[in-house]
Fold this protein.
Amino acid sequence: MRKISSLIADWIAMFREAFETAKSFAQALGSTADTARPRNDLFLEKATEEGRLITTSKRKTSDKMSEAQPEMQALLADEQRHSRTRLDAVAAAQLASQRDMARSGKAAINFLNEDMLSDYEGEEHVSQRSKGQQGYSKSMPQKREVSAGDEYDSLKRKYWRLREKLQAMDVEASNLTDENSQIKAEKKDLEKEIRFLDSFLHVIKDLLLRPYAEATGHDRYTASMFQNILHDALEAKTLKQQTIYYQDQIVSLHKKEQSLQEHVTILQQELLSNVEKASIVSDEHFTQDFRWLASSIKTLSRNIRFPADIDLADIPAIKSARLLNNVDKAHWNGRGRKKALIEAFLWSVLIYQVFGSPFGIAGPGCASEINDWWAKLFGRNHVADWPLPGDLAERWRSMTVEQVVKLGGKEAITRGIITTEQGAAIRQDILDSILKGRTSAYKLITETLGELSPATDFLQVPVIIDKAFSLALEMNIQRCRLQAVYPKIGDLYSQGEPSYLKSNLNDEEADEGTVAVIVNPGLVKWGDGHGKNLDQELVLVPCDVIIAPLPNDDVSTEVNVSFSSVQAMQAGYDNFMKTPKSEDHRRSAQTDSPSYIEDDLVDLRPNLGRAFSQQTQFSFPNSESPDNGVGLK
């Protein structure tokens, strides 16, 4: 029994030692896991689980030991102290009962009763018995008479109960031994984890703490620095997540952009394939039509009969005309000069209503709004504040004019007629604006000139208006840029040799001067019929102007520069006239003119306009002037 007690005591001590070791290891592991948590979440979870298992095993072992320890100690103590005595007493009692039952039975029964009482009372009865026979006798209950056989059977039953308990304790001890072995195995595994974590922490210290401390100026490489590292790591993690998010957005947007670009390409191809190709009109056609219009206007101006003493400058509609604005009063005198001023007035009306904007054919209700959008989209960096000639600008202009024709009707634009075949595509507001523009031009011409010459037949005015609108429609539907241009009053001009200017002043020998009167604008083309080479300029019809000579003291270096420019322009014009392609153009320049115009004036006018249309220092007036009632500024 001493061996069993010693073995159990050893087990208990071993369990306690294992528990303390596991507890210390769990604490160390928890501390290590807390330290390495930012970098070793996996190991922390495993160590936490191991610690939880150890704690559970410890609790179970402690509970079992707590339950078994008091009873085991009492039983073992009683067994060690009384087992031998009981067996000897039983044997002696049996022998004594056989020899002399009467003589020794009472003593044996008293002895057995003492043992039974000591068994029931345990250590307390033993301590009381050690104090003296008197105390022991006082605490004893009243003895009852029992036989030796009954006592023997009782002791035997008690013995077997104790033996069964001992066997149960052996089984429990065996189970505890198995659990101890399992805990030892787990301890070995945890020791391996500790060694790994220790090496891992050394690596963290060498690779993270030390470089971070050196980079941030710290002189300690301890675990407390993990707080700073954790803070930076969290910020870096946030930035990394944001970076990944933005990268995903960039990739998504890039894919969308590619998809949109492909879609735009497809739409452009469909758009270009659906757009009717504009028929390419030759330069000779535009040259002849523009000259025919100029000739018709000149004829009408010559048919106006007005008193010789009338002063055209006193008529507001004529004085404020776009081509006559800022003309010096000295140039308004003379019957021939007045005819030229009437011609300039007629051209001013057409420039304002038709040629001042590529969308003038749409009428005042639509033209200004469309032109504003064209200028907003492509700028105002060219002649008369038009956009610079470019592929997109010209395509936009051409397609917009085509749409205006579709919604307003070609017959309404060119002839002012509303046909029943125009269809449902006609927009009434656009049609009304077109007709209003034609009517405004007709009324302004007939009412102004009717006051000067009531007897004049103005049947030619509708023909001129029809031709102007038809020509403007053809010009602005082309892929190239066709524009009516003119200089500003007062621009310098220097005439070279041979002379190509016929001045109305007395000084026929003057070779230098300024623009005094603009009789009619010129026609200039940028690009070719396919809308290419839009940076190349070609003068189809020169600008017809009247030159006022400069006084001798006004000739300056600025005039000399202008003179050189004019010489260069004259040379370019001569080369243009010599090219085979321009043979018809040169012949068209020599078309028959009215009989009242001198032949030499017809020959000089192309050269005169050529110089002014190509002179780069000319500044063309703004085509969008405020409407002052006559609409010609």
